Amino acid sequence: MTADRRFDVTRGPALRCRGWRQEGLLRLLENVLAVGERPQDLVVYAALGKAARDWPSHDRIVSTLRTMEEGQTLVVQSGKPIGLMRTHAQAPLVLMANCNLVGQWARAENFYALEKAGLICWGGLTAGDWQYIGSQGVIQGTYEIFARIAERHFGGSLAGRWILTAGLGGMGGAQPLAACMAGASILCVEVDGERIDKRIAAGYLQQRAPDLEAALAMIRAAQEARQALSVGLQANAADVYPELVERGLVPDIVTDQTSAHDLLYGYIPREFSLAQVRELRAGDPQRLMAASTASIVRHVGAMLAFQRAGAVVFDNGNLIRTQAKAGGVADAFDIPIFTEAFLRPLFARAIGPFRWIALSGDPMDIERIDRHLLEHFGHNASIVNWIGLARRHIRFEGLPARIAWMGHGERTALALAVNRMVADGSLRAPVAFTRDHLDAGAMAHPNIMTERMRDGSDAVADWPLLNAMLNCSSQADLVAIHSGGGGYSGYMTSAGVTLVADGTPRAEQRLQLTLDNDTSLGVMRYADAGYAEALDEVERRGLDHFTL
Ligand code: NAD
Predict the structure, then answer these.
(1) Average pLDDT for residues 362-383, to the nearest whole number?
(2) For 244-268, what is each residue's pLDDT tens digit?
(3) Which of these, 219, 231, 250, 254, lies nearest to 149 by C-alpha position?
(4) For 282-312, b where at least 16 C-beta lie within 10 A, e where not — what string?
């Protein structure tokens, strides 16, 4: 069924749909597959994060987007289009609920059974709602973490320092480039050689080492020269990390971005080949999951040993500590989570990963928006610094896109300016705006985003639900509510939103309302939890937040 499919994105000014809002969403769907990890299986990233339930669902979504009018809303349930509703011209065009199971049922084994029965699929964060833009999507987040570590632990510079990590998948692939942008050397352990080649081809990874000795020699030479370098090594992290501990080698920074959240479809246990793992998934899933847990126990045991030896160690959002703890590593949570350790002060001001995608497919459109930002956001050193770095280092995958961590008011100001640029013809076609689900008001994830919230509200999932309802009321083009699938089942709920700036006054209204309200709720979520930065932001921006 997939042999004759091509995973290309349509570019240029010609419309196949009845308007740019529909066309924009269709191009985004094409884009997540074009830059995804296994498009033939509809898998975009994170082992199982899918763009649609199955090919018939995908094809029906595509044909509907091509024919639907404004005033109609397509309803999608876990990647399957359910029907077209009559709404009104300013209503969202697409509404989605992906992978939401009721509390007591939200466990991995129930998810796998429902998925096998064709009743559900997981949308990841940005896969199911067509917002993924390749490894670039998390690159600034990863860069900001390294920059914070540099400030806090290494006198502001990572020159001459080295980072150990694992996993070069859809999201993990951002790590080598982010590390180099921050001036460090990085060794990335990846069990699948094809993933290493893919990151080299995409310009995210520089070198591939033939073995551990060669990899360490390359890292040592780069350290001595105080040069940034990224090296990929095909090996299993559960072998390499303990081996380095054994040798008494201590990296400056250690993390991991294997798909440890999923013991069956994500993590690859040591002493198993990729082919054996594929067979065991169907033949003996219990054995495979037990082997994954045993490897994660070794893997996290080594991370803790690095921490005791003085390395800065952190969990990069893949549930590896949770899996290790379940496997018996009592002190797994001595490793901090990146959000709480490094990024919470930004989220408390609703500064988070905002993205825009040139629907024209023309890199010049992104270049013009970059120039606009450099001219008009000069007061914000972090945005100017980031745009400079991104322009120098990031090669586009799929539709040209940009990510920048921006906050309340800033996102709206940029989007409205872009809408004007579309209207006056400075850009070749409309531009889509979206953001990661890992955003201030949009995610409850007690082992990642909301771990150790000040007021103990870690597991309260009202916030992403409110976020989605608010974005519908604010006339966003696409709104989605996701909960965790696979190994993330029962661990998270989040909301996604997308808008198309098509240059019209109606788009101006949609952008203004949605982007203002999206970040307002983010600030209020943290203000409600008592964060000083959020309370300050409420004051500075004049937000109508109630203090009870
Ligand atoms: P992916 O499935 O595309 O890639 C995971 C990679 O890890 C694969 O290439 C796989 O071969 C490799 N791998 C698995 N086990 C290994 C082992 N034992 N040793 C070495 N390599 C191994 O996943 P992804 O999209 O890159 O995401 C990785 C993880 O990060 C997921 O758990 C995801 O949910 C999480 N994530 C975190 C953030 C964040 O904000 N920090 C964002 C997105 C994803």
Answers:
(1) 97
(2) 999 999 999 999 999 999 999 999 9
(3) 254
(4) eeeeeebbebbbbbbbbbbbbbbbbbeeebb
pLDDT tens, residue by residue, 192-221: 999 999 999 999 999 999 999 999 999 999
Distance CA 236, CA 240 (A): 6
DSSP string, 174-243: HHHHHHHHTT-EEEEEES-HHHHHHHHHTTS--EEESSHHHHHHHHHHHHHTT--EEEEEES-HHHHHHH
Residue minimizing CA distance to atom 4 of ligand 1? 169
Compute the distance from residue 215 Cα to the ligand 1 centre, in Å: 21
Ligand 1 interacting residues, C-beta cut-off 6 A: 37, 45-47, 138, 141, 166-172, 189-192, 195, 236-238, 257-261, 266-268, 295, 316-318, 438
All domains in the chain, ordered by first residue: 9-134+351-548 (3.40.1770.10), 136-342 (3.40.50.10730)
Torsion 148-151-156-157 (CA) sign: negative
Contact 259, 266 (CB under 8 A): yes
Tell how far CA 378 is from the center of its chain.
27
Q: How far is the CA of 487 from the centre of ligand 1 (A)?
A: 12
